[in-house]
Design a protein that fits this description.
Radius of gyration: 53 Å
Distance between the termini: 138 Å
Shape: rod-shaped
Largest sheet: 5 strands, antiparallel
CATH topology of the domain at 110-229: Alpha-Beta Plaits
Oligomer: single chain
Helix content: 40-55%
CATH superfamily of the domain at 110-229: Protein of unknown function DUF881
């Protein structure tokens, strides 16, 4: 038996044929794959709908719960806001009342319009009891100024407060335990027209006005557009230290 030798190098394969072979093989593979793949049919068409319904109900329930929580939080915020507003109002009232108390106690500086009073011994008459300015005269003037609504009063720079004592010891007048000498400069902050009117009315401080005319005692009252009275700096009851504000 003779063997037939084929020289493959002499065989010429055209590119077109190679392309055809490749396409044929690929088409066969794709066809067989499609043949083996079965189309999945929906056996129960209600199941997807039921699943979506459950999901919808769960989302609705969650939304309702969140709305309820938000509503509760909003109510809590409203309550806290009201509580804070009430507390703030109380604080403001306390601060306001405290400020009034401090001001009425004379522990703050005060400025404003008012009157300036000069009280002094007679310079032209013989010195006698009626021609000398006494501590009682100063007390009468201060008492009248208080009744007339003066907001702050000072005597020779000493602030007059509720505990202020105006005393006379051996011809020496003491204001807040501080010695003062004539002339006595009394300043009062308040309605300057009203304060001036009550001080210059002869029917009110009758004895003082009579002595001005008859004994030459000096009693002058002037309206002032701007006065400044320092805070009280004396001793407080039960406290050894002096107030320094």
């Amino acid at each position: 038996m003779k063997k037939i030798k084929v020289d493959l190098t002499s065989v010429h394969i055209r590119p077109a044929k190679i392309l055809l072979v490749i396409v044929s093989v690929a088409g066969g593979i794709l066809f067989s794959s499609q043949w083996r793949t079965r189309i999945v049919r929906v056996i129960n068409p209600i199941q997807p709908y039921t699943s979506l319904t459950v999901t919808r109900d769960a989302l609705t329930e969650e939304q309702t719960r969140l709305k309820s929580e938000i509503n509760n939080i909003t109510k809590s915020i409203d309550l806290r806001t009201k509580d804070l507003a009430i507390a703030n109002q109380v604080d403001q009232v306390i601060v306001s009342e405290s400020s009034k108390v401090v001001e009425l106690a004379g522990l703050t500086d005060v400025s404003g319009e008012g009157v300036a009073v000069t009280l002094d011994d007679s310079s032209s008459y013989l010195l006698k009891e009626q021609s000398i300015a006494h501590a009682a005269d100063i007390r009468d003037i201060v008492s009248l100024l208080k009744r007339a609504g003066a907001e702050a009063i000072s005597i020779n720079g000493e602030r007059v407060v509720s505990m202020t004592a105006i005393d006379c010891i051996v011809n020496t007048i003491l204001i807040n335990e501080t010695r003062v000498s004539n002339p006595y400069e009394i300043q009062a902050i308040g309605d300057k027209n009203h304060l001036y009117r009550v001080l210059t009315d002869p029917a009110i401080l009758q004895d003082l006005h009579r002595r001005v005319v008859g004994d030459g005692i000096i009693f002058e009252v002037n309206k002032e557009n701007e006065l400044f009275i320092d805070a009280y700096s004396g001793r407080l009851p039960g406290i050894n230290a002096r107030v320094a504000i």
